[in-house]
Amino acid sequence: MRTATYFFIFLNLSLALFEEPAVYPLPFLVTSLVEVLCLLVFFGRLTHFAKVTPRNMFWKDTKNICIMVAILLSLTDLAIYGVLRIYGVKSIRWSRIVRPIFLINFAESRQIRRAFRSIRNTMPEITYVFLLFMFSLLMFSLMALKLFGERNLQTAEGLPYFKNYLEIVFDLYVLVTTANSPDVMMPAFEFSSWYALFFIAFVIVNTYIFMSLFLAVVYNNYKKHLKVVFGGGNCD
Questions:
Q1: What pLDDT score does 153 carry?
Q2: 11 CB contacts (<8 Å, ≥6 apart)?
Q3: So what's the pLDDT on residue 92?
Q4: 26-65 burial string, b = 16+ CB within 10 Å, else e?
Q5: Which residues of the chain have a pLDDT value below 50?
Q6: Do 211 and 176 touch, CB atoms closer than 8 A?
Q7: DSSP alpha helices (H): ranges in 52-109?
């Protein structure tokens, strides 16, 4: 049962590769039939679990409710998408986002739920570090707007350089990952080499300090909650 459940969960998640927009597109009829088959298996698994579980316990279990709601949402979305497709109306399969619910909420996925619970419990404790990082990013973006916005600089593509505040926030956020380094700083550097100090300060503060701090907080808190979940005997 466990192997079959995991197989159909994997098959259901894999449909994203074959549904429009797809990496390897298949006809809608094929993907819809496979999805209906998976949903029937999930419903059968849930029905079997209901047969061996006291009714009051079954309906009090949030996991069972989540699976039932996910099945209903998936079937509803599939039906609506199919009808709109018949009439030539383009739409989006919004129910794709509920598919991981099957992976998390079946009884066989106890270890995944424990890890997920640890991540959930870790989130509030890293919020303060994340807010500090965002404050730093927003302040550096404001300084960049004041430093470069009025100098009529242009990128290599001939576009205005650091004129829009939200675009600056995004560019500097990408710079934290160093994915656009050194391209993002070249127009300012060509105008004056002293402007490199701004980007050096930004990388030191946000990439080396905040990202290291963020990683340490995430790791320590996740490990702490993981020990509580696995060591506390919680089998939910």
A1: 84
A2: 34, 38
A3: 83
A4: eeeeebbebbeebbebbeebbeebbeeeeeeeeeebebbe
A5: 235
A6: yes
A7: 55-60, 62-86, 100-105
- Confidence at residue 232, expressed as pLDDT on a 0 to 100 scale: 56
CA distances in angstroms from 213 to 109, 172, 192, listed in the order given: 32, 18, 32
What is the number of other CB atoms lying within 10 angstroms of the CB of residue 236?
11
Amino acid at 87: Y
Query: Is the distance from CB of 218 to CB of 125 less than 8 angstroms?
Result: no
CATH 3.10.20.440 is right for the domain spanning 118-231: no
pLDDT at position 121 is 80
Q: Which residues pair with 160 in a beta bridge?
A: 154
Q: Write the DSSP symbol of residue 195.
A: G
Determine which helix (DSSP H) or strand (DSSP E) holds 41, and give its type and residue range.
helix 28-51
What pLDDT was estimated at residue 229?
Answer: 64
DSSP state letter for 210 = I
Residue 160 sits at φ, ψ, to 5 deg, of -60, 140
What's the token pair of residue 107? 């009884």
Q: Are 98 and 137 in contact (CB under 8 A)?
A: no
Task: List CB contacts of 168: < 8 A, sequence separation 6 or more.
Answer: 141, 144, 145, 162
